[in-house]
Amino acid sequence: MAPTIDTKTPIHHDLPTPDPETPLRPRQPYKLSTLCVTVENPSMKDQYGSSSVPIYQSATFKGVGNEYDYSRSGNPTRSHLEHHIAKISSASRAFAVSSGMAALDVILRLLKPGDEIIAGDDLYGGTNRLLTFIRSHVGVTVHHVDTTDPNAVIPFIHPTKTAMVLLESPTNPLLKIADLALISKEVKERSPGAIVVVDNTMMSPYLQRPLEHGADIVYDSGTKYLSGHHDLMAGMITCNRDDLAKQIAFTINSVGNALTPIDCFLLLRGVKTMAVRMDRQQTSSQLVATYLHSLGFKVYYPGLPDHPGRDIHERISDGNGAVLSFETGDKELSEKIVASTRLWGISVSFGCVNSLISMPCVMSHASIDPATRAARGLPEDLIRLCVGIEDPTDLLDDLEHALVDAGAIALNPQQNKYVRVPPVHAVLNKAVEQLAIGSTSKNTNTVDREWFVSAPGKVILFGEHAVVHGVTAIAASVDLRCYGLVSPRNDGKMSVRFNDIDNFYGEWEVEGLPWDKSSVLSKGDSHPDELDAQLIEAIHAGPLKELGPEKSQARNASLAFLYMYIKLAGTERPSVHFGARSTLPVGAGLGSSASFSACAATALLLLTHRIVIPPIPTPISAEHPHLSHQGRYALERASADEANRWAFVAEKILHGNPSGVDNSVAVFGGALTYCRPGFGKPSGMEGIQGFGSLRFLLTNSKVPRDTKKLVAGVGLMKQEQPEVVGAILEAIENISSQAKRSLADSSEFGRENLLRDLSAMINENHKHLVSLGVSHPSLETIREKTAASPYNLSTKLTGAGGGGCAVTLIPDNFSEASMKNLLVELSQCRFDPYLTSVGGSGLGVLSPYAEHRSLGAGVSRGQVTPPETPDEAEDVPSNYDSIRASFETKSTSELPGWAHDLGKWLYV
Ligand code: PLP
């Protein structure tokens, strides 16, 4: 049960409410707004009766043993400010320092090595940065937990080690609410020595006084509401405990970060108007939040009825503040909105009399790395609004203009009001939609050809897990493939069959799909960074509503396909069937989903003429039945890039936050290095040129994995043991760069040397992954079996680990007989071994040209290839037999051979 707290208890301050003049007309205690404006300190009367506190712009004071001698230790203007802030904060002591961060720095100096802090997971970015620093430099352990849930905090409270609990409520920028009173009580009960610290910047003492709710220390960035004018930097620390006050005063005097006299003066002046500013700002914030909410945006503001924790907030605070945030569903759209406002200034910070607009992920919270931002659920498209004191009508009008200009809302003539536009490239789509209205005829276009595509899986050779933390990873294609076939139906329906996912079959009326929930992407338009949440929701609620959680794989694959189908085929609405098959084990960490994504994306891009296959120059060498990436370039780079972009969209639907490595390997084949952005070094993907294909044994342990949990586990370990994990990451980075060099220069070093080096690196990399805790007994068994004599092979886990697959390097001279025995041994342990080669071709399309097809009614080999790049509408001959029936019924082992024999495959 939360303790009941009387927030209306009069605060203790030394400006006494005057005695009642008569018993019939008693005096009320002064309201906080009166206290804010009444700067009086009975023990510091001004000798001239000045109505504003003078600025004692003096470093030193004459005399010995007087109250003031040196301004680092104390200054009369500062004393006035500190007295005034203590009064309005229910505090006995207050300290003014040079910034909010300086305030936190002073507070954190109460800690010593070995102490533990529990802090929120949605903190101000600068707070996060300072906590990271003290973790690595002071040896303090920091646990970031979701402080909106007291039950998430409790397990981390240690009776002696927990020294500090650091809270914000509401948080910035997601306005999450923490029950300051309940958490303070739980902390005191479980760890009496721990102190509860609250960053109260978002509220100011006018709206919330955490010392009344059990906090030991409260600090505010005075730069914000206390000052109100963005004309100074300041930090205020308040407390009611003499022992803490003494230590804080000691630090400030030692460090010398107290606020300067002139800034103390300015801050004091600002505080006098705080109540009127805040009242106005809050009222306008409520209007803005309600307006955005009514348009259907996801809005974060404690003043909205459905805001999580609103009841707690009402109990501990006196208002909702003037910061709110909202999601648009599309980062690009958010950027356009932010750029389109005039009255709302683009700026970091908040609390100013002027209204501000910002995108936390690219501004105030950019210092938190993207992986952590994603893990903490901070949407990249989030817009933060800090409402000022301008006329609310003007603020709403300016915001509406910006939303219209950016294409986030549009006038609905029937309703004669602005409504939200689905967040898909909204600006460009305004024009495109006009055109599309005419062209989205109810009649589905006739489809007269099939497209058969395939894409390889991938293995991570080196750097898995470490890649999440900025280390370079090396990924390569495997010659196990996924195949996709899109065939005409022309009966007003569309359907999918996924043979490898319980042989799932789904069928829908084309016109019954939620077309109205998505705007069409016209040719040449790329998909925005963010997925269209509204369309995803509509597909779940419509075509996929019958698929329960037991069918989650089929549901996800269908969702990815339907999403792309609706986005890409919106103007044509073709009635087609799509089938996908895989020779890759599904869900074993070999990139089966990315190769599915690449196939689905490519099939749809071909179907909708967004990519075209140019005719192949003849003659094609007879030795090369397939045109591959290795110098025999057949699919245009621009087409491959487009396929890759859409495969990435599908991967996002399937995985939330993919790195893009798997789909890039599925499309481009070969091997590549990858480094995530956001770690202060060159990021992105780079192909490894000159990489020759290598033989590997892939062994599927068949133990299912929870990739997210494994990644989170390593993240936690990194937080708790930064040095240990840091050293492992460095070692893995070294392996990756050595492997990259060796693979690229294999011809120079000689194949034997390469294989020997790789063997050593495989063993070493695996050892590090074991130290990160991501191996599994089944993987260790595979390692032991393959390492045992007479095989003496090197094996490592690949991908997330915790099950899934192991990769074993097979030297060129490994005997057939040994291979046979090893395969039998592994199969006897109920593992699935696949002998495969690594580093081969990427995306493939079965040539649509008649002379390249060995099957086909009415066409014969040798028919003339069209002389020029075909017209988009009529790019290739169409009259050949469907291969759909064979495709769906061939056994998995027959599939690659059968596909190979169909005709000429054109590879990226
Ligand atoms: N706490 C919160 C919630 C903040 O938003 C900020 C600054 O934006 C700070 C602390 C740091 O304050 P300052 O910039 O004054 O150092």
TrEMBL record:
Residues 570-606 form the GHMP kinase N-terminal domain. Its EC number is 2.7.1.36, 4.4.1.13. It catalyses: L,L-cystathionine + H2O = L-homocysteine + pyruvate + NH4(+); an S-substituted L-cysteine + H2O = a thiol + pyruvate + NH4(+); (R)-mevalonate + ATP = (R)-5-phosphomevalonate + ADP + H(+). GO terms for molecular function: ATP binding; cysteine-S-conjugate beta-lyase activity; metal ion binding; mevalonate kinase activity; pyridoxal phosphate binding. It comes from the Eukaryota. Residues 1-27, 858-878 are annotated as: Disordered. Pfam families: Cys_Met_Meta_PP, GHMP_kinases_C, GHMP_kinases_N. Pathway: Amino-acid biosynthesis; L-methionine biosynthesis via de novo pathway; L-homocysteine from L-cystathionine: step 1/1; Isoprenoid biosynthesis; isopentenyl diphosphate biosynthesis via mevalonate pathway; isopentenyl diphosphate from (R)-mevalonate: step 1/3. GO terms for cellular component: cytoplasm. The keyword Nucleus does not apply. InterPro entries: Cys/Met-Metab_PyrdxlP-dep_enz, Cys_b_lyase_euk, Cys_met_metab_PP, GHMP_kinase_C_dom, GHMP_kinase_C_sf, GHMP_kinase_N_dom, GHMP_knse_ATP-bd_CS, Mev_gal_kin. Belongs to the trans-sulfuration enzymes family. This is Cystathionine beta-lyase. It comes from Rhodocollybia butyracea.
